[in-house]
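YM 10:42: ATPase sequence, as discussed on the call
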Amino acid sequence: MGPYQESRARDEVTAGRAVLGIELGSTRIKAVLVARDGSTLAAGGHDWENQLVDGRWTYSLDAVWAGLQGCVAALRADVERRYGVPLTDLGALGVSAMMHGYLAFDAAGDLLVPFRTWRNTSTGPAAAELTELLGHNIPLRWSVAHLYQAVLDDEPHVDDVALITTLAGYVHQRLTGETVLGVGDASGMFPIDPATRDYDARMLAAADALLAERRPGLRLGAVLPRVLVAGQEAGRLTAEGAALLDPTGGLRPGAPLCPPEGDAGTGMVATNAVAPRTGNVSVGTSVFAMVVLERPLAQVHHELDVVTTPAGDLVAMVHCNNGASELGAWAEVFGRFAEVLGASADPDAVFGALLREALEGEPDAGGVVAYNYLAGEPITGLTEGRPLILRTPDSRLTLANVVRAQVYGVFGTLSLGMRVLTAEGVELDGLSAHGGLFRTAGVAQRLLAAAVGAPVSVARTASEGGAWGMAVLAAYLEVAGERDLRSYLDDVLFADAEVDVVDPDPTDVAGYAVFLERYTAGLAAERAAAESVRGAGAAGGGL
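YM 10:58: structure's back
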C-alpha cells in the first residue's frame, strides 16, 4: 500500500466508515477490516479447537467469547500498527460461523446442553425420518435433525427449549439483542422456500405435526430465529455487545449489522459465486462445494444438501465432514523432522514445500491412497473416521506420491458428491476456490481442477476467506436499496479482481480417475478400520 492509499485507509478508519467481518471457523476465528471498495485494511485472528466431550464435538461459550475478544484485540493492534490511529467506530459489522449444529436455550437465555457442532453424526434416525417425511434431504448435521434426535432420545432439556440457533445466530443475538439469521445460515437449520425466502411453510407444518406426537408443546416456528436476506439491516451493535467484543471499551456501539451468515454463504460471496451455473469450493476442517442451481433438483439425494445463497437462491451443497486437517497433521510431522535435522521449520514454509512436492508425484499418486477421515463421513456412510494410508506392495512410495495422495484425499469424498450433481444434469461454467490450502499458488488449485473436471479460479482475496466475505455482506447494507447482491459483486467488488484460472490437465484428470477408483474400492478397508480400531483414549487402548 503506497502513501496515498495508506492515507486514504487511515481516513476510512478515523471516519468510522471501515467495515468489519468476523468468521468463527473450525480452527480459527478471523476478523477482517475492509474499505467500502473491499480493500483489506487490517486483520486479526485467534486459534481455537473443538473438544470431544462425552462423545460429542463442542466448543464452550467461554471459548467463543475469549476467542472473539482475542481476535478483535489482534485486529485493533494491527490497525494501530498500520495507521497509528485507534479503531473506535465501525461503518458496519457482520458475523458468520460454522453452519448447522445445535445451540438450545431456555426462555431465560441459558444454554440447555453444550453446543453440538456440525461435526456430530449421532442424528441418523432423526435425519432419516425427517428426510422421508419432508421429501427433502435433511443431513445429520442440520439443526432440525439435532432437535428431533433429542426428542427421540427423550432428553430432559427438550421441554425447556425456547430457541435453537446457530453459532453465528448466537453471537449476533448477544451483540444486538436481535434473534435473527441470514437466509443462507437458516437454510442449514430447516428447508427454505425460495419463493418466500423463509422457512418452507408446508414442511414446517409437517415437522410440527411430527413433533406434536411426542412433544405437544414444541413448535418449530416458535423456536427458530427470524429469517432475513442479504441487504436487510439486522440490528445495531449495543453497548453490551461492544463490551463483549472489546472489554477495554475502545470499540463504540451503534454500528449496523447485516444478517448473520454461515461459512458456506460467506465463501460464495468471497469467490463471487452467487449466480446460476457458478460454484465455489471451500477447504478447511471440512470441505464443501456450493453450486447455484438453475432449477430445483429432480430427486432427493443423501449426498446433496439444498441450501441457499445469502440472497435466498437455491444451492446444491456437497458437504464433506473431513477436509485439510489430516494434511496439516502430516505437515507438522515433516516440520518436526526438519527441526530434528536442525533445519528451519516455519509451518507455512513446510506446508508450501510439501504442496509443491505433490506436483512431482505421479498422476495417480503411484498407487498410494489416503483417507482424511478424522470424523464420520455421511456421504460415504461412515459414522466414525480413521485416517488411513493404503498401498499395495507394488505402489511407488515416494514423498511426492504420499503428499499427492493426501491432497487428492482432501477432494475424494467431494468428487463422489459432485458425480451426483452431474447425473442430475447440473452444469457448471467453473468453480472458484478459497481457503488456506490455496495460498500456495497453483498446487491445490490444479489438483482440484483434476478432481472436479472443471476450471478452478482463485481470486486474490481467497486467503482472506469467509471473514472477508462477511465484511462484504456488511458493506452491502449501504447500497442494497440500489442494486442486488449479484450486480454488487460483479460491478463493484470484483470488477477489477485479479483471478487465476487453471483448466483441468488431461494427464491429471486421467490419473485422478484411477486414484478415485482405488479410493472407492478401499472404502471397505476404511469402514473396517472405523469398526475395529478404537481411539488411543479408549479403555485398554489399541485394538
